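Re: that chain you flagged

S.,

Sorry for the slow reply, it's been a week of failed gels. I finally had a moment to sit down with the sequence you sent. For the record, here it is as I used it:
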Amino acid sequence: MKIAYAMINCNRRDGSARAVNEVAERLAKKHDVHLYARKAEDLDLTQISWHRVPGVNWAEVIDFGSYYLEVNRRVRPGQFDIVHSIGCNTQRGNVITIQNIQPAKKQILDRLGRAENVSPARRLTRGEAAVSAPRGEQDTDVPACVAGCRSRIAEALRHRCG
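Prediction finished late last night. Pasting the structure tokens below so you have them in one place:
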């Protein structure tokens, strides 16, 4: 299979990046794996094709926006069997992994009528889930599924959020 990963920065320090590195390196042993990222650190690139995505490395919103537009330009429809987007990094993704609780946190804060002092970039990432949901599914009553990395985190979220 031909598999692409879309992730702004790939390294072994960040949670989602660590997971992507591990899976990508293992899949690359038997599949054609490509990584679209600004940076690729601590990753075995002998079997993975890294496509460096240039862009503005200033102001989170501009950085994300330039990455998003460039990956959408480079990854053409039908070019890959799987396009795994870590977050809403490309509209070409047919597998989207959100490995943080920002969208769920936004829903909870909205439900509780609370505001939080966060940057415009963070508010944008919290709103990604609603914007990227397939048309007609944004306004469903289905509760968000939150799975923490550790059982105690998941239990704390269940207790706090009902």
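What I noticed first: Residues 102-161 form one domain.

Talk soon,
D.
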